Amino acid sequence: MKRLDIGIGLLALIGLGIAAYLAYIHYAGVKPLCLASGGCETVQTSHWSKLAGVPVAVLGLVGYAAILALLLVPGETGLAATAFVALAGFGFSLYLTWAELFRIHAICQWCVASAVLMTLLAALSVFRLLTTEERGAYA
User: Fold this and answer.
1) DSSP 8-state secondary structure symbol assigned to residue 30
2) Residues 12, 16, 22, 24: what is their CA dihedral angle, to the nearest 10 degrees?
3) Is the pLDDT of residue 95 over 70?
């Protein structure tokens, strides 16, 4: 399962980079680089860009960092915790995508990229959990 761990780690690192960039633009007060005009800025400055006063990008940083850290936790606990955090991130990404489409009426390419990464992370981490458990190996 080593290749799967590496794949999950690489995806989480890319997600960490995106979340760090979005957190930077939030705190620096600069406009995000976007291919489509206005969508990213509209999303990043909407009230949906914060949850209980915390920028969503910071929550993403925490989520991606947690996935990376949990890859180092051995055994069933690490497998289950990684899958749990990735699934929670996936669910939150669904919620934020819904907000972009139906409340903000704008799409941020960085947010879409993060949602795709979190979807892949959820799928891979659940697959990793299930296939490792089927073999009876918890390493």
Assistant:
1) P
2) 180
3) yes
Is 19 within 8 Å of 64 (Cβ atoms)? yes
Q: Which helix (H) or strand (E) holds 54?
A: strand 54-55
Radius of gyration of the chain (CA): 16
CATH of residue 45's domain is 1.20.1440.130
A 10 A CB-CB count for 139 gives: 10
Mean pLDDT for the chain overall: 92
DSSP state of 50: E
For the chain, give the number of residues: 139
Answer yes or no: is 139 within a domain. no
**Residue ranges making up the domain that contains 39:** 2-134
Tokens encoding 85: 């955090």
Phi, psi dihedrals of residue 45, rounded to the nearest 5°? -105, 0
51: helix, strand or coil = strand
pTM: 0.90
Encode pLDDT of 30-79 as tens digits.
Answer: 988 888 767 888 898 899 999 999 999 999 999 999 999 999 999 999 99
